[in-house]
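Notes on consecutive records. When two proteins share a document, each keeps its own sequence and its own token line. Never mix them. Below: protein one.
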Amino acid sequence: MKAFLALEDGRIFEGVSFGASGERCGEVIFNTGMTGYQEVLTDPSYKGQIVAMTYPLIGNYGVNEEDSESRALWLEGFVIGELSRITSNWRSQKDLGSYLEENGVIGIQGIDTRALTRHLRTRGAMRAIISTVDHDTGSLVAKAIASPGLEGRDLVASVTCSRPYSFKEQDGPRVIVMDFGVKQSILNQLYTAGCNITVLPANTPIDDIMAHEPEGILLSNGPGDPSAVKYAIETTRKLMGNGNIPMFGICLGQQILSLAMGGKTFKLKFGHHGSNHPVKDLKTGKIDITVQNHSFCVDMDSLDREAIEMTHVNLNDNTLEGIRHRELPIFSVQFHPEAGPGPHDARYLFGRFVEMIKRS
């Protein structure tokens, strides 16, 4: 079946559909990971986006229950160069096409993903539509233009959990995870570090949070524009003023934390999405290869430099990748230290968080 990807600037890509049929709009971005397509598909941070993989052959090792990062597939569409006709892996339980079809996600293959990536790098991420039912290119471009972008939209509300839950209870520091779209691998790393974890919905009031008597709070990753998640910003501001509870922010969590401290965020031209981004630790000089997935970034110049220290910087574009409060036990990073999927260079940050809790 024919499928089309139409961008708001009029660029059209024609290919062949796989997975579900239908039509969906979203912001089209590219991911540079060579593997980890199942983790990408199940990462809540991709809500509202159509994801194009730059690696040319996708689906060769199938999918399985263990590698899912959440309870659902959140992205609006999946764009690849070629779908592997062979699934070969001892852990595989089904093929990628069936997986997308069962979960209602539209896929398109057979397009020039190199040309798409170069176009997005030049023009920036933009609104787009992926369709198997409308073959009128003019109609598709008009729909893309009329679709909502990411800016100003609260997408956290659609991916957060509906009720609190405990994650593999064990003896250890009581850590509250504010679920803005948390990935399973983040919870796994906290558990491995010895934490007793309770996950709370993003809109949980501060009194309910404090009723759990947290010894540490993690602000998770998540999708969309951080400035639109005003309830989370206000709650985080109150948490900062409610005693010296150690706090650790990851990705959207860093952005929420920074906004709570009076900072500002801005939208990146085409975002950071992949598992090969070099980040420098400004204290040690060490360079980590990191996993990243964000379209917005914190403006370091908007933060109070007397109170907040910049700890990490992206070596590709010199954007802010980590901060630390100079007086309060609070730190955050823009990248994903849980390494799901990708390099393990930054996993030590979970141990740093636990040590901070123990010192407090």
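Protein two starts on the next line and is unrelated to protein one.
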Amino acid sequence: MPRAFALIAAFFRRPCLLLACLSLLFFSGCSHQDGNGFFNQMREGKPQEFLQTSVDRMATLAMRDNLSSLYRLQAKLYLRNPEELRKSGFLNIHAAVKQVRLAIEQQQPLPVLGGRKDLAALSYAMSPEFLGDRVGAFIYAIGSMLVTAHGNRTEFYMTDAINPTFVHNAARNIEKATWILSQRQNKEGQPLLFSNEISEEGTNLSFATEFGKIVARLDLITQMLDERYRRIGLNYAQSLLFLNFLPVQ
């Protein structure tokens, strides 16, 4: 958040740029809706949104939703694996989820993982040698991987760059992690973590569904980023074709 306010201050030091952005927002809004609707949206928006392109805003919302999905999955995994909640040292699911959420979003290590993050944490959390709270470690590992893939940020602005290759790789890693979750077993032949279930007693595929939502959001952001950079290249090629000089201000 402090970085967003610093960017806003930079805009105010350049009033012409700020006025241009406000004018663009005003006229684009008026072209699609009446004045009341536009000003209602302005009141509901946050100041830092002025410093986000449409792709930046989509990436920010996708990150928010993906992390929310992870926290839902953590709570559901505790319900299926109550012994892991006891290992966490917390009395209830809410407190255990809060600890992992703070560690992910503040980019702090999770003590049970010995300083490991993202892929190293994921490999360790899903190994038979790991004896701690496997649910918390598994969710933290995926969450920290997502943050790492997005340049160690959870909110995005005009000055930020997101590498679409890393976001794409994160989506594929989650697909692999989902497979590991459903297939890896301990020495007794039991799953390391109980998740999806297809049996005579019933069917529960909610875990696969929630992970699928995360993968879909990541793939969408990857496509949007690829298209943005492709358009930058096409605009440059068009300027060469028609001998147009590129704007410098």
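For the record: The chain has one domain: 50-241.
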